[in-house]
Design brief:
The protein has about 290 residues and is of the alpha/beta class. It is about 35% helix and about 20% strand. It contains 10 helices and 12 strands. Strand 7, helix 10 and strand 8 form a beta-alpha-beta unit.
Length: about 290
């Protein structure tokens, strides 16, 4: 691979440099950059290297590992992963939340939901909209949505809760009026989530490879479209740690492009991308087929 690479040539990623980045990404974040991802890594990091004016991949790599703040490492992972999201993405999950999960939570004094890999905030705010629709605005003071992501950059955007109007295409005008404030002046084509709705969402930085056993228990955990970046052992470890953060009878929702097939875990398959932790006393572990 890249036998003709020249020293200091930012356009060429050597085999040694790819292996360094692959190991770093896996050890720190669980990211699985298997063979065949060389072009993706080279393309995305070349842009970052040019932005920061480094002479080579090696110089950039040294900068990343020597940055004690950890921000350069996060920026590297940010460059290698896709932060695509949208409001009410994979709508079947939100229908299931409304129709099946929320009726059982309606009478609780507090309702906690965890949104993993929340990116720029569309998912946790969509969850908040659903909860308010089903429980009424008076329930806002008992709703707590924990929204976590590894990227400080996307979390800063999520906390602002401001999005261009095209992000809300297909959402009824009545919904927009209920949850959003229309921008004026230079923000004319923007909307911002209302303060009282933003207050129901708590954004925190979290690396899913770190311990999070102190969180929960939750009746619902969203962890969608992040496990596609992990190898099977990392997926299995994560799913089991997430299940530990679910209360008995709680639900784990994963991306519809993801599967727990072949993973040993204690959850019961309900429907595509939807799993439930057995109630206390129900049957234990199984190898998922869904």
């Amino acid at each position: 691979m890249n036998k003709n690479a020249r020293a200091g040539d930012v356009s060429v990623l050597t085999a040694r440099e790819f292996e360094q980045i692959r190991r770093l990404a896996h050890d720190q974040f669980g990211l699985d950059l298997r063979e065949g991802k060389e072009t993706l890594v080279s393309t995305r990091l070349s842009k970052k290297i040019r932005e920061l004016n480094f002479p080579s991949f090696q110089a950039y790599f040294r900068h990343v590992i020597e940055d004690r703040t950890g921000e350069s490492l996060i920026a590297l992972i940010d460059a290698l992963t896709t932060n695509y999201t949208s409001f009410f993405r994979e709508p079947a999950h939100f229908d299931f939340l409304r129709e099946t999960i929320l009726p059982g939570l309606r009478d609780r004094g507090r309702i906690d939901v965890w949104s993993n890999a929340c990116s720029t905030g569309e998912e946790p705010y969509s969850i908040a909209f659903c909860l308010i629709e089903e429980l009424g605005e008076q329930a806002l003071d008992r709703i707590r949505i924990l929204a976590t992501d590894i990227s400080t950059r996307v979390l800063d955007r999520a906390r602002q809760g401001a999005y261009p109007a095209e992000r809300f295409q297909g959402i009824p005008a009545s919904r927009l009026r209920q949850y959003l404030l229309r921008g004026e002046g230079r923000f004319q084509n923007w909307y911002r989530v209302k303060p009282e709705v933003r207050a129901a969402v708590e954004f925190q930085r979290l690396n899913l490879m770190d311990r999070f056993s102190h969180l929960g228990p939750f009746p619902v955990i969203f962890c969608r479209n992040v496990m596609i970046y992990f190898d099977r052992p990392t997926q299995q470890d994560l799913v089991n740690r997430l299940s530990d953060c679910l209360e008995p009878g709680g639900y784990l929702l994963i991306g519809h492009s993801e599967s727990l097939n072949g993973i040993d875990h204690p959850l019961r398959y309900l429907r595509p991308a939807t799993y439930r932790k057995p109630e206390t006393g129900e049957a234990g572990r199984n190898r998922s087929r869904g």
